[in-house]
Amino acid sequence: MPLDRELNLEAPFKDICHESVLSIIRTASVLSNAGDQLFRQFDLTEAQFNVLFSLKYNPHHVTQTDLGKRLVVTRASITSVLDKLESKGLVERRDVPNNRRSYHVVLTAKGFALVDEVEPLYRENIYKAMEGLGEKDCRQLIRLLETIRTQVGAIQETLSGARSS
């Protein structure tokens, strides 16, 4: 369905760039909502699943700080997410030798089991959402989104440089 109809706009978009950006945002929101619905069945949030998933595929000495950077969340947010996961018995924080202010985060057996249960359903939903797009389409989409992120990053650098002048 065209975005203007989906958003119940009375007139079509007149600016294709604006429509494109809104379409990206709307799609991200729809995907996030679908993910939330799936994760809720397992008493997880999207952020919690992302931490578990990241730990499964990066099992060696991942610190709380590393997770925060990988998942692009604030220090307070990652602390809160890890507190919840730890209270559910899904992760453990272990002291880093010779560093009293840092912790390694590891999946527990229960955490591994949960990721192994949720991941196939998550992937199944991704494949359904991307149905009809071939590998070439997906690679092109990735390149286009990378271009946008790079350009937005350059805009942000320019803006932050202008503010500090």
Radius of gyration using CA atoms only: 20 Å
Tell me the structural class: mainly alpha
Can you summarize the main beta sheet? 2 strands, antiparallel
CATH class of the largest domain: Mainly Alpha
- What's the average pLDDT? 90
| Distance between the ends | 46 Å
Strand percent estimate: 5-15%
Concise description?
The chain is mainly α.
Could you please describe the fold and organization of this structure?
By secondary structure, the chain is mainly α. It folds into 3 domains: 1-41, no CATH class; 45-131, Winged helix-like DNA-binding domain superfamily/Winged helix DNA-binding domain (Arc Repressor Mutant, subunit A, Orthogonal Bundle), CATH 1.10.10; 133-165. It has 7 helices and 2 strands, in the order αααααββαα. It has helices at residues 3-6, 16-40, 46-57, 64-71, 75-87, 109-129, 135-164, and strands at residues 91-96, 99-107. The chain has a two-stranded antiparallel ribbon with strand order 1-2. Helix 2 (16-40) packs across helix 6, helix 3 (46-57) packs across helix 6 (109-129) and helix 4 (64-71) packs across helix 5. The model has no long low-confidence stretch (mean pLDDT 90).
Layout of secondary structure:
Blueprint: H1 3-6, H2 16-40, H3 46-57, H4 64-71, H5 75-87, E1 91-96, E2 99-107, H6 109-129, H7 135-164
Antiparallel strand pairs: 1-2
Helix pairs in contact: 2-6, 3-6, 4-5
Throw out a few tags for this protein.
about 160 residues, mainly alpha, Arc Repressor Mutant, subunit A, 3 domains, two-stranded antiparallel ribbon
